[in-house]
Every structure is written in C-alpha cells, then in structure tokens.
C-alpha cells in the first residue's frame, strides 16, 4: 500500500476530509483486511489517525522530496 493517498470522496466526512488533498496512511493490517485505511486527517488531535473506507481514496506515488516534506509536517 502506498504511504500516501488522495481523497476522492468525502461525502460522509466533509469536516474531516478534503477532496483532492493528499493524506498519509498509517500501517494497519487489520483495517486493510476490511478494506479500510487508517488516515491522518484534518483532526490532528488523534495521533493514531482514523479509519475510513479505502474506496474514499486513491493511492498516489509522490516524488521523494514531497514525501520527506509531508512526513516531516505530520511528525511535528
């Protein structure tokens, strides 16, 4: 699974997700068994992220420089 996804559907969670925004995916093997992804969303109070249906996202491959910036921004 890609470490980053882009939101393609936020109908059920418009306050937590922005369509077109790239989000970091946290590893969660259990969630993936149920077609769910653990995402770090707009609610930064939960360091473990939230579960969302994988169908709400599309995987994206980012240039290495972009990945470094996004990983640093989330880890702050």
What this model shows, in words?
The protein is an alpha+beta fold and 76 residues long. It has one domain (4-75). Helix content is 22%, strand content 28%. It is built from 2 helices and 5 strands; from the N terminus they run E-E-H-E-E-E-H. It has helices spanning 29-33, 64-75, and strands spanning 4-7, 22-26, 36-40, 50-53, 57-59. It has a 5-stranded antiparallel sheet. The longest helix is centred in the last third of the chain and has 12 residues, at 64-75. It is globular, with a radius of gyration of 12 Å. It starts with a strand and ends with a helix. 16% of the residues are buried. The model has no long low-confidence stretch (mean pLDDT 88).
Largest sheet features: 5 strands, antiparallel
- State the total count of DSSP E strands: 5
Helix fraction bin:
10-25%
Number of helices: 2
- For the termini, the CA-CA separation is 23 Å
Mean pLDDT value: 88
H/E topology pattern:
EEHEEEH
**How many structural domains can be distinguished in the coordinates?**
1
Give the amount of beta strand, in percent.
25-35%
* Inertia-based shape: globular
Which strand order do you get reading across the main beta sheet?
4-3-2-1-5
Radius of gyration based on Cα positions: 12 Å
- Show unreliable segments: none
